[in-house]
Amino acid sequence: MRNLKRAAMAAAVLLLTASAASAQTTIRWLHLEVNPNQVKIWEDVARDFEAKNPGVRVETQFLENEAYKAKLPSMLQSKDRPQIIYSWAGGVLKSQIEAGVLEDIAAPLGDTKDNLSPAAVNAFTLDGKIYGIPFAQSQVGFFYNKELMAKAGVDGAAIKTWDDLLDAVKKLKTAGITPLMVGGADKWPIHFYWTYLAVRTGGKQAFEAALRGENGGFAGETFVKSGQLFKQLVDLQPFQNGFLGFKNPQALGAFGDGKAAMTLAISTAYAQQRSLSADKKGISDENLGWFDFPIVAGGKGDPSDTLGGINGWLVTKDAPKETVAFVKSFVSLEVQKRLAAGGFLVPVYKGADEGLASPLIRNVAQNLAKSKYHQNFYDQSLGPSVGRVVNDVTAEIAGGSMTPEAAAKAIQEAYKQGN
After folding, report:
1. Structural domain span for residue 156
2. Which of the ends of the chain has fewer CB neighbours closer than 10 A, N or C?
3. Which of 134, 94, 87 is nearest to 113 (CA)?
4. Do 256 and 194 form a contact (C-beta atoms < 8 A)?
5. Is residue 8 part of a domain?
6. What is the mean pLDDT, run by run of 10 residues, along the chain of 419 residues?
7. Is residue 301 assigned to a domain?
8. Rounded Cα distance, 205 and 197, in Å
9. Whole-prediction pTM value?
10. Domain final residue, candidates 354, 374, 394
């Protein structure tokens, strides 16, 4: 009898254990952030949410940028797909919506959206439905090493025009200093040059006309001209030796190590160049400068126009209801202020920019606030198929294996095929 009671009690314990296990809700969160200092804050937010929501577990998973882009489509078709995924919005987001793998979170998001930048929320909205929550804005611009620039007699703050930049590159080369660091193996860091030149040359109207197929589309004058201007820079051989073999994290780390005078990068590189440098200190605030992408002669774009991203978290189909609650906590005022204070991002939560400690990042925030036209990265805005071609052909211009005219034509052909 005693043995039977023990067996019954053991069975009851097993049943309770099984029930507890089945009650566990797991939220899988897929990201591509390489800065461990920023990820540490993210992990803190996850653990805090778990503590406030017993029975909920948040698992983080990392994929390198290019691996993320390559593997995500098949992952989203899996039953074990992550519930939270990283997004740059744009055409890639649209294709994911059309594939039916994302959840409309407008209802559970509720009034939270009113506390966020309207432009940022709109980037994740389609046909009145909201598929993601923005958490950061960014601008592409030139970071520079003041000490190296001074050795070549170059004042980074005085670089205002494309010709100014070309002159600076020549002076740096003469001084034996590598002018520009770039992660050419990833290709998308190279497309910043061509895309920003298109923004400066043709402005918003040229991009929108190309989308409508007017003026030759992406094979038209604006986009050929941007390639020709980029080739002026390429012909000066401004990049580090073997630049097409450098991944972006490697390039940012090398810039932080003082191996080049400048790098054209997303504003998040402010913190990344430190964490990815050999000494984990990188270039100090006193020695790190920034200038906006130069204007071009005869350009129709407004000098305040910006290129960059609006980054957010998407919630995938059939995610547990706790998923949206977690992401809402992630973009709370407190968390946004904390990330802003570390210089990790330009926040989207209203009032969180008060936490920006870096004058350089405050300047980026001001640029974004006054920009009338903020162009999302072309490789995201134009969708995965066309975006891939943009990255490929701009890398080929940089490597000297494709003409600006052929590159523009290839982009237009890819765009026609997809529309």
Report:
1. 140-307+377-418
2. N
3. 134
4. no
5. no
6. 45 40 79 92 96 95 91 91 95 93 96 92 93 95 98 98 98 98 98 98 96 96 98 98 98 98 97 96 97 97 94 96 96 95 93 91 93 92 94 98 98 93
7. yes
8. 14
9. 0.87
10. 374
